[in-house]
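tool_call: predict_structure(chain=1)
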Amino acid sequence: MADRPIGVTIIAFVAILAAIANFIITLQMLHLLPVYIGQQMSFWTFSLFGAFMYGILGLFYFWLFQMLWTMQPQGWLFAMLLAGFNLILDIVTVLAGSSWQAMAPGIIVSALILIYCMLPGTKQVFGVPQ
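tool_result:
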């Protein structure tokens, strides 16, 4: 196992934050938490499908944390796919009527993960060709 760069450690902990954010949205969609903590979320205000999607994303982010923490080579690809899917899901939620403010944390976290994963140094650590 190679030494874990500080950036990969930071992204691993950002993945934990993303998991927590997705679980909060899951609880909001199940009406176990107020639907707006801060701003109105109007897409999937009560939806088992939406709660399932965000709940699965939360579990996947915990899996991503484990992959990044142990520096598994497939962690880079998994981070790219998961952050991309989460970004698309959050943007669709905004387009369907939720406010930017309600979805901004998820959008920012996903964008940061994508940007960091595209840096040449990160690709090199995970053995991804330039």
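agent: Helices lie at 6-29, 48-69, 74-95, 100-118, 120-125. Proceeding to next step.
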